[in-house]
Every structure is written in structure tokens, then in C-alpha cells.
Automatic annotation (TrEMBL):
<keyword id="KW-0963">Cytoplasm</keyword>
<protein>
    <recommendedName>
        <fullName>KIF-binding protein</fullName>
    </recommendedName>
</protein>
<feature type="coiled-coil region">
    <location>
        <begin position="89"/>
        <end position="142"/>
    </location>
</feature>
<dbReference type="Pfam" id="PF12309">
    <property type="entry name" value="KBP_C"/>
</dbReference>
<comment type="similarity">
    <text>Belongs to the KIF-binding protein family.</text>
</comment>
<dbReference type="InterPro" id="IPR022083">
    <property type="entry name" value="KBP"/>
</dbReference>
<keyword id="KW-0175">Coiled coil</keyword>
<keyword id="KW-0206">Cytoskeleton</keyword>
Amino acid sequence: MHWFELAYTHTMYYLAQVYRNLGENERAATYCHSTLQRQLQLNQFSPMEWALNAATLSQYYITKGQYMEGRHCLAAATVISGLAGEVPSEAAARESETESERREQLQQKRADIARCWIKYCLNLLQDAKKLLEDNIGELDTDRQDELKRARRQEEEEEEKGRKSALLFGSEDTFDSIASVEEKVMCLLPLGFTEARAVFLVGQNYVTQAKEYFQMDGYVTDHIEILQDHSSLFRALAFFEEDLERRCKMHKRRVDMLEPICNDLNSRYYLLIRRQLMFELAETYNEMMDLKLTLANRQADNHSLDSHTIKKFNHLCSASARYFQMFLDSLCSPEGKQPEHLEEEVLRPALVARFRVARLHSKLISSSPPVQLENLNRALENYKYVVQYCEAHPEAAAAVETELELSTEMVGLLPLKINRLKSRMAANN
């Protein structure tokens, strides 16, 4: 009987692979789940391999928004990976090569499982944000109240649903899995306190993953983990009502990514540097908007004090500088602009142009020549967006809003520039 059971488990495993290769992810996931369950029941598995398969399966559930199942897979992965034995201590004298390799493998696989947990926390926060944001990306409090009311009913339902879900484990691991699950929610967080709890779990796994994937030796992995950490801060900031504290969260993102962006060698890590430049530009932009909102709340619109103006200009220039760095990275070694933007950089490049224009027109200066220079820079970048879309009509669909606003500004800015020039001439 036992051999028949094992053969059946292997069949399930192969079916899971066949369906995955056919792109039928849902059926593949079901077979994969059944295989893992049977391996546990028959006690025929290697703990680390089993745990990695369960963690990988969790990623499928997460993309489907099935967080209860995703969390269950990850909790089981954490518990079963614990059965692989403790990582032997460095002090084990004269350990054999194979023992050293085994330790390395265990550490790497546990770090991989930690990275799957990071994705769980990040996606949970991002899905909650999508559900709660209004059309300008702010928290919709009416929607929040409505969802909190619906949640109370859902919690009662969840208890029933829990019983029927596909659960892993044998009698001995069941309680351990449940206690790992209890450390993080599987419903979408609806307020700051819940969001912060998810954030802290994610941040804890960031620390674990970084211990293994260090910058020295694992550059790409290390930076991806940092980018996830930055995204966790960004998602948490959405739930923070206090704008000062929200600004501090974005500052943490800058402090995390800026040194790396500036130290990386463009020759080897161009794509990663571009991602970092763009994210830094957007983060500074976000901070600038927050500072302005705060300043306007505290003063009349027209009487910003010099300290605030200085801070605002600093953030504005930093954002423009990173967008410009991103644009410069698209140029040829001789510094020539590409005539045709490749599809993967088309939207980012045109958005960066649009933002550089907008940022230059926002810079505050009391010197007319500086004002003139900023307005000219703005006009030149707005014109680029319009002219590029005229020359490549297929690009317009990628930047509808930006194109519409750029067209409007190309009409308005020359009048503003001429008025400024007349004033300067009159004063000379």
C-alpha cells in the first residue's frame, strides 16, 4: 500500500509541473498543495525542499489575494524548515566541507523563505492601499468606515471558512503552524495600527533576509530586499495621518537607497541604478508636496518663511536632479538623446521629462533671471513630451494625463515668460 501511496504522490507532483508549464496556474497550485500535504502525511520529504516548495506556493496565493492560504503556506514553511535541524555553529571545530556547505544552504533557504514573507506583508499592505485610496491616492475615510463595518461580519465568516481550507500538518506540527500564523493578520489592514503591525513583521523578515544576502557577494539580492523595505515604508506612510511623520518615513527611504544608488557602478548595474534614481526622484517629490501642504496649513499662502522656502527648494531640486540623472542614463556615451525610446523606458522617460518641467516651474526664487531660467527649463521639457508624442503617436497612450497637461503648459508658459521679460526690461 505504501508504495502505491508514494507513486500516487509522485503522479500529483508531475501533474503539478505539467499544469504549471501549460500556464494553468490554478490547477497546478491545487496539485502542488495536495502533493505537499501527502508528503507530510506519509512522512516522505526533505524538510528544506518541502519548506521552499510551500513558500513558493504561497507566492501564487498572494498574487491571487488569497492571504489566508498564503499565510498558511508560509507558516508551514517556517515550521517545517525548522525540522532541518539547527544551523551548526561556526565553533564546531574542524567541521567537514560538507557540513559547512550544508550550513550555507540552510541559511540561504531560510533567507529565501524570509523573502517570501516580505512579499506577503508588502502585498497585503499594497492591496489594502488600493482598496482604500481615493482618485488622488489619499485615504478615503468613508470607504474605510464602511469596510470596517463589513469586516466585523467577515471575521465571523472567517472562523467557518478556516475549517474548510486546505490545511497542512500532522498532529505534532499543527499547533506550531497555527502559532506562526497568529503573528500576522491575513485580512487587509484597514487602519494605521493594523498596517503598522504588518509592516513590523515585514521589517523583521527584511533584517533576517539581509543577514544572509549581504551587499558583499549578493549585490542584486541585497538591493531588491532594500527596495522591498522602502516599499514597506511607502505603503505604511499611506496610512499615517500625521504629515510630519509621513515625511519622516519617506526620509527613511531616501537614507536607505541614496548611498547605494550613488555607489553602484553604472556599467554593471545600470538597470538597478535607473530603478533607484526613479524611486529617489519620486520620494523627494512626495516629501516636497508634503512640506508644502504643511507650510500652507501653518501660514498664509503667500508668506512662506525663508527656512521653509529653502527646505522646499532643496527637495524640489533633489527630485529634479534624480529624474535628470535617470534621463541622462538613457543617453549615448557621447551624451546624445535617444531618438526612439524603447518600450520599457518609454513611460518612465516621458514621465521624468514631465516631472522635471513641473519641478522647475515650482522652484521659488526672488531673482527674476533665476525665475526666467527655471521657466525656460520647464518649457523645454514640456515641449519635449509634446513633440515626442507628435513624432511617435503610439507613445501618447502611455502618458495621456502628462501629455494633456504638457500641451496646456506649452500654450501658457510662453506668455508667462514674456511677462517676466517685460518686467525685467522695465526695471533695467
